[in-house]
Write a structure and sequence with these properties.
alpha+beta, 3 helices, 8 strands
């Protein structure tokens, strides 16, 4: 009897974990849909002809920040440049009745001969829901999925064959901290 109860308890725990995983998978599907719709909207807005009144056809606002625009040398790492694209939901009232909401940050950082790409996607409440990183000498891809400030899934690819791979040092906690800093300090 004790083994039967223990087995049923284990089965119940397994069912609960499966249910929890199914819930996380639904959240991840929602995050992926948000990522795709934000990128489609950005693409649509990038293709607005110059003669068209941009603000009349595009509900999002784009800001570009450029650090070290001539790619000059820094002591130690050599050439260094960071290009940051900020995309805001601009569908709110601009007459002081609302604040634009940051929906995506894309950063391209070049250090010497290595280039890193970072993407941060936020939900409607300003919480980070997705982080993507690719680049460096390894061309490793890192994906973090978040729900309510908690990591629910991480995908870290192996580098291409024959490429020396260092240990992955990016942590979900560091990503959340950087995402919050970007959100709080880069809003217009």
């Amino acid at each position: 009897m004790r083994y039967l109860l223990k087995g049923l308890w284990s089965l119940g725990l397994l069912s609960f974990l499966t249910l929890l995983s199914a819930g996380d998978e639904n959240i991840i599907k929602t995050i992926r849909k948000r990522y795709q719709s934000v990128n489609q909207l950005i693409e649509q807005c990038n293709n607005v002809p110059e003669e068209t009144a941009f603000h009349e056809v595009c509900p999002i606002y784009h800001d570009l920040l450029l650090s070290n625009d001539r790619g000059g040398q820094f002591c130690g790492p050599g050439n260094h440049q960071v290009v940051t694209d900020l995309w805001y939901d601009h569908s709110v009232d601009c007459n002081g009745m609302g604040v634009d909401k940051l929906i995506k940050v894309y950063q391209k950082e070049t250090i010497a001969a290595a280039t890193y790409n970072y993407e941060y996607v936020y939900d409607e409440a300003g919480k980070l829901i997705f982080y993507f990183q690719k680049g460096g000498y390894e061309q490793r891809e890192i994906r973090f999925y978040f729900n309510q400030g908690k990591l629910i899934k991480s995908i870290i690819s192996d580098p291409p064959k024959g490429v020396y791979a260092e240990e992955v040092t990016v942590t979900p906690e560091a990503v959340l901290k950087e995402a919050k800093k970007l959100y709080n300090h880069l809003l217009l």
